[in-house]
Specification:
The protein has seven helices and no strands. By secondary structure, the protein is mainly α. It is rod-shaped.
């Protein structure tokens, strides 16, 4: 019996449809915000509605993709892009019309861009799952941005900075937590452990090779020393033998001369 392989989900599905809808709603929200010029209540409400509807799609597209096995490469790439585009466009628009301080926008966008870069940095080691802090951050950001988009009067409008302040704090804290988890993942992932083990084996092999080289060099040096000592000893022995032979020859010549002189004396 042939077992069926894993079923590849279709590209066109409800989860991807919600993601695309969120991307389409980004320019709609921006257009309404620009039309409001930061002051027209009707257009501000329209921008807020577009933002809220897009945010709701963010809550459901991931759940539907996982529960119905509709996870696709397109969705994995498009979903975070849609999130960053929606939040970034809303924050930039609010700051452009002086409805939100620029430093708030800079802090939040820096965190979002930094987290995205960290995801790519650790992608070969694994995926960092979303934490409760990250979900709280998203929820606070949505509430804060919607609150700033709505032209709320009096005390209701005064609550906006407090909600945004809480969102900024959680954004910074969760960003720092994400950095720590990314560093931990790069140190403890199976890929990182395998590479560390390979480096240790390479270092051990290098140490063994260096030790072998030193031993061979020492052996060669000792052999050379012994050979030189042997050559010196042989040369010394040869010189001594030559000197002895010369002394013997001189002695023999002297004896011969003496004998000859004696014989000549006797004849005389």
């Amino acid at each position: 019996m042939i077992e069926a392989g894993p079923v590849t989900p279709p590209l066109v599905n409800i989860a991807n449809g919600l993601t695309v809808a969120r991307i389409v709603l980004v320019p709609v929200m921006v257009a309404a915000l620009v039309a409001s010029d930061g002051t027209h209540a009707g257009w501000l409400i329209a921008a807020c509605i577009a933002f809220c509807v897009a945010s709701v799609t963010d809550l459901y597209d991931g759940k539907l993709a996982r529960s119905r096995n509709l996870v696709t490469p397109f969705g994995q790439v498009a979903d975070p892009i849609a999130d960053k585009a929606l939040t970034g466009a809303a924050l930039l628009g609010l700051s452009w019309f002086d409805l939100l301080p620029w430093w708030v926008t800079v802090v939040m966008l820096t965190r979002e861009i930094g987290v995205t870069m960290l995801r790519f940095w650790v992608i070969r080691h694994g995926v960092i799952p979303a934490s409760r802090g990250g979900k709280l951050k998203t929820l606070l950001q949505v509430f804060a941005i919607a609150w700033y988009l709505l032209p709320l009067p009096g005390l209701l409008g005064a609550l906006g900075p407090w909600i945004m302040g809480a969102a900024v704090i959680v954004t910074v804290v969760t960003g720092a937590d994400y950095v720590l988890r990314a560093l931990t993942l790069r140190r403890t992932s199976p890929r990182a452990l395998a590479r560390r083990a390979a480096r240790l084996r390479a270092a051990e092999a290098t140490t063994i090779a260096e030790a072998t080289t030193i031993a061979e060099a020492t052996t060669i040096a000792e052999a050379t020393t012994i050979a030189e000592a042997t050559t010196t000893a042989e040369a010394t022995t040869t010189a001594d033998a030559t000197s002895t032979a010369d002394d013997t020859t001189i002695a023999e010549d002297t004896t011969t001369a003496e004998v000859t002189a004696t014989a000549d004396g006797e004849r005389t």
